[in-house]
Write a structure and sequence with these properties.
368 residues; mainly alpha; ABC transporter involved in vitamin B12 uptake, BtuC; two-stranded antiparallel ribbon; 14 helices
């Protein structure tokens, strides 16, 4: 007589394969009229809202605290057209233009860092590491120390220097095909050469010009007014939408040129446009505040770790860059020293420690 034997599936030591082993991306969808839907990353949205809240807190702190403290109600009164004459001078002529310059410069550097790191597919591919910031500083220094001129002329020199440096680095790195590591190495070499040229220009200048240029090269927001804030705002208003519109092809370029080309992306044309946008952002920020170091390096990577989202995270990088630079300026003014330190001193210390940690982490991961 035949008998059937029941098989105990629970005793099978092999784990059952999941129906879909791919990681699930925490996306939410909003249905729009016409059968369309809008998807967003929940964690990235939460991080963005927290960054906006932090930005508002920094704004309130910057406008109310200091040697001449003001209640938030008095600051609001000034911003709406009222207030005492002394309060109006402190808010509108001293604190607000400096704060706006810090926010705009930080946002530009964070956005430029996200663009270049994505293009290079390398966390070291930020404009201050690959030489674009130093090139913009060289152009601005040549105007300040050799030609002389207004803030608009200095801004033009910074743009010209950044563009010339980007063309040189791109052409040298393009030999045999542009690779992330080659772009970083070539950029570091060009940055060293330009730093020597900047030192030469300062050594040939008069004492007063050399002193002011040395402070400017550190990266400073001291004595920044509306003449620095206005051009920076115009540059960001023009270049930020252009970068966001190229966000989709930039995300595809992260997968490599072959994959992006197979999806219909004109890789070379898109890359050139993104480089021009990034150089414009870097040059404008350098003209407004000098070569502030490491904001462009830290902001995109910190945002990516916070959001855990794929892609360049352009808006989040801009927000975190603005918050980071404004907070660093507040700390340099009021927390670390009785006198106002250049903001680049603080960002240089923080960024240098982060760079050492990043290189050590990559070295360990490469040898495990």
């Amino acid at each position: 007589m035949n008998s059937t034997t029941a098989v105990d599936r629970s005793a099978d030591p092999r784990p059952a394969a999941p129906p879909d082993a791919r990681p699930r991306v925490p996306l939410s969808a909003l249905r729009l009229p016409g059968g369309r839907s809008l998807r967003w990353h929940r964690r990235a949205t939460l991080v963005g809202l927290l960054l906006v809240a932090a930005l508002l807190a920094v704004v309130v702190w910057s406008l109310t605290a200091g040697d001449y403290p003001l209640p938030a109600a008095d600051v609001l009164d000034v911003l709406t057209g009222g207030g005492a004459r002394a309060d109006r001078y402190i808010v509108l002529e001293v604190r607000l233009p400096r704060l706006l310059t810090a926010l705009l410069v930080g946002a530009s550097l964070g956005l430029a860092g996200a663009l270049f790191q994505t293009l290079a597919r390398n966390p070291l591919g930020s404009p201050d590491v690959i030489g674009f910031t130093v090139g913009s500083a060289t152009g601005a220094l040549a105007v300040i120390l050799v030609i002389g001129g207004s803030a608009a002329t200095v801004a033009g020199g910074a743009v010209a220097g950044g563009l010339a440096t980007s063309v040189l680095v791109y052409l040298l790195a393009r030999t045999g095909g542009t690779q992330g590591y080659r772009l970083v190495l070539v950029g570091i070499g060009v940055s060293s050469l330009l730093s020597s040229l900047n030192a030469y220009l300062i050594a040939r200048a008069s004492f007063s010009d050399a002193q002011s240029a040395a402070v400017w090269l550190t990266g400073s927001l001291n004595a920044r007014g509306w003449e620095h804030c206005g051009p920076m705002a115009v540059a960001l208003l023009l270049l930020l939408p252009a970068a966001v519109l190229l966000g989709r092809p930039l995300r595809m370029l992260e997968m490599g040129d072959d994959a992006a080309a197979s999806l219909g992306v004109r890789t070379e044309g898109v890359r050139i446009r993104l480089v021009l946008i990034g150089v414009g952002l870097t040059a404008a920020a350098t003209a407004a505040a000098g070569p502030v170091p490491f904001v462009a390096l830290i902001a995109p990577q910190a945002v990516r770790r916070l959001t855990r989202a794929t892609g360049p995270n352009l808006l989040g990088s801009a927000l975190l860059g603005a918050v980071l630079l404004a907070l660093s300026d507040l700390a340099a003014q009021r927390l670390l020293a009785p006198t106002q330190l250049p903001v680049g001193v603080l960002t240089g210390v923080v960024g240098g420690c982060y760079l050492v940690w990043l290189i050590a982490r990559q070295w360990r991961s490469g040898h495990n």
